[in-house]
């Protein structure tokens, strides 16, 4: 498992925002910019993955006839 894969969504988003800001300022060398872009792409992919998993969990929440939550079905259990 890579370092990025162990990051929380919030930590990955903060680093992604900082990475984008560095790229926007244009003060990095070409090689540094490429490395920043690659890391940013990996951070974005991780955020997308974590967000999709959270959305799937929310979609699996089961409701009773009266609309009250009766629990949830973990995505892993499907």
Description:
- With 78 residues, the protein is mostly helical.
- It has one domain: Orthogonal Bundle (Helix Hairpins).
- 60% of the residues lie in helices and 9% in strands.
- It is built from 2 helices and 2 strands, in the order ααββ.
- The protein has helices at residues 9-25, 30-59; strands at 61-63, 69-72.
- The chain has a two-stranded antiparallel ribbon with strand order 1-2.
- A hairpin with a 5-residue loop joins strand 1 (61-63) and strand 2 (69-72).
- Helix 1 (9-25) runs antiparallel to helix 2 (30-59).
- The longest helix is centred in the middle third of the chain and has 30 residues, at 30-59.
- The relative contact order is 0.13.
- The model has no long low-confidence stretch (mean pLDDT 86).
Q: How would you sum up this structure in a few lines?
A:
Its EC number is 3.1.11.6. With 78 residues, the protein is mainly alpha-helical.
Keywords for this entry:
78 residues; cytoplasm; single chain; Helix Hairpins; nuclease; 60% helix; mainly alpha; hydrolase
């Amino acid at each position: 498992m890579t370092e990025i894969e162990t990051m929380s969504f919030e930590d990955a988003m903060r680093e992604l925002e900082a990475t984008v800001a560095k790229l926007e300022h244009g003060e990095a060398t070409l090689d540094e910019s490429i490395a920043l872009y690659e890391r940013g792409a990996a951070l974005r992919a991780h955020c997308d993955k974590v967000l999709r998993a959270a959305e799937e969990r929310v979609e699996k929440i089961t409701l009773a006839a009266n609309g009250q939550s009766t629990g949830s079905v973990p995505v892993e259990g499907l």
